[in-house]
Amino acid sequence: MRPSPTPKGPSLTPRGRSRLDERAVHFVSYDGLVNTNSFQKSGLLTYQGHQYAAWYTAGRHAVVARRALGDSTWSTVTLPHRLEADDSHNVICMGVSRADGRLHLNMDSHSDGFHYVKSAAGLLDDPAGTPWTPEALGAVRTTLDGLALTSRFTYPQFVPTPEGGLQLSYRTGVSGDGRCALAEYDGSAWTCLGEWTSSTGTYTGEHGTSTARNMYLHGIDYDADGRLHAFFTWRERNGAVTGGGGLANHDTGYVYSTDRGRTWRNDAGQVVGATGGPDRVAVTGPGLVVDPLGPGHCLMNQESQWTDSAGLPHAVISHVPVRLGPRTGDHVTERTAHGRAFHLRKDAAGTWLKTEIPVPLGSSGRTKLVLDRHDNAYAVLPYGRIAAASKASGHTDWTLLYDGGGLNAFGEVVVDEMRVGTDNVLSFLFQEKSSGTTPSPLHVIDFELPA
Predict the structure, then answer these.
(1) How much is the pTM?
(2) Which domain holds residue 61?
(3) Which long-range contacts (CB under 8 A, 24 or more apart) does 73-82 make?
(4) Count of CA atoms in the C-beta half-sphere (13 A) of 363
(5) How far apart, in whole angstroms, are the C-alpha atoms of residue 231 and residue 169?
(6) Does residue 189 fall inside a structural domain?
(7) Does position 120 have pLDDT exceeding 80, yes or no?
(8) 7 domain residue, yes or no
(9) Residue 125 and residue 202: Cα distance in Å, rounded?
(10) Cα(124)–Cα(143) distance, rounded to whole angstroms?
(11) Which helix (H) or strand (E) holds 331?
(12) 342-385: per-residue pLDDT in tens?
């Protein structure tokens, strides 16, 4: 009987980098750039042997580009839309509906209307034989094929469904008083499923009480078995709960759905909310918190999540370590000086574990999480640095594998999550630092993961 092969640990093999744009739009807003805010989720994706990227140029034009995997040359299409505001929330995200081979884009929104593009059917199924033209991508619309959704729209994330359709996750309302909602595309038409979180209820912390809030998602993704996972944090409307500084964010929560987002369960399997109905996931709901943390520790919203080969959920979150106490200063300053990222995961016994990643953030920005085919974990930190931990260690041996040297990256990066699974490559988009509103280069860099 042959012995079991030794599990492979994490590694990175450089595969090269390519330039998307010599002069991409550059302005700093909410301490981020509109082209590389990591919460846009799919500003870079891979499908059917081609990689797709979307961004805004120095002239504020929205563009989409594609390349065959392995090529360094991108073919670019300029859309008939220009960025409307100097607001880094107004990102471009993309999605793929496998049922009809269409590329979808949603862009340029922060608590207002959105702009939507749906390509011709089959565009992504035969990229080598399909012209890459503005006509193939289609018109820019302000509805989902006539479905308006809400006039207070933010944070679009496309979520491919196991059946080949596509869901759109978004926030309706505003920061501190908003709800998460879902729409669904079945390959022929969009339907609004409705809101699934509540902004009401009373939260009482050490320093005060708040009666309104919104849920910020760290992600919303299906695993290989069709379970929909969502990590989140809450942001209170009443900033007094912080005690005088930092962010009004608190606690890391987790819910999942086994019926395509129609109902939501806590970690114990108890139904805690339903989409489109009066009973929604609320701050007062039972069993939602998997990592308690009060306001005032500069906990960041909208970081990252993944599921491993056993369907177990993992997340990366970041805050000032509790050992340093509550912070009363500006959260950007505090996170830059003291912030750390943490790996939060559920083990096979059902226990939640949390490990501090021993690399100072040196930034207020977010970190992205990726797991390779061996379930090793990679944290893509601000400035394009990459730390990793092996499954064999129980994900406790975090080590910096790549220091981002030579990238001159501004801060957050956008990871191609789909390429990790299809091509075994960690690929991310980053923009170079600049000053003021001087445009700067935008790039994609690739690393091969262990086979």
Answers:
(1) 0.97
(2) 13-448
(3) 73/18, 74/18, 74/20, 75/132, 76/20, 77/132, 77/133, 77/134, 77/136, 77/137, 78/134, 79/105, 79/117, 79/134, 79/137, 79/140, 80/134, 80/139, 80/140, 81/107, 81/108, 81/115, 81/140
(4) 20
(5) 13
(6) yes
(7) yes
(8) no
(9) 49
(10) 22
(11) helix 331-338
(12) 999 999 999 999 999 999 999 999 999 999 999 999 999 999 99
The single-letter code of the amino acid at 298 is: C
Domain assignment present for residue 6? The answer is no
Residue 1 belongs to a domain? no
**CA end-to-end distance (rounded Å), the chain:** 24
Look at residue 236 and tell me whether its pLDDT is greater than 90. yes
380, 386 Cβ separation under 8 angstroms: yes
Give me the CATH number covering residue 132. 2.130.10.10
What is the count of structural domains for the chain?
A: 1
The rounded distance, in Å, linking the Cα atoms of 254 and 375 is 20
User: Burial of 189 by CB count in 10 Å (0-12 exposed, 13-18 middle, 19+ buried)?
Assistant: exposed
Structure tokens that stand for 74 in this block: 């991108």
Strand order in the sheet with 386-389: 368-371, 377-380, 386-389, 399-402
**Tens-place pLDDT, residues 166-194:** 999 999 999 999 999 999 999 999 999 99
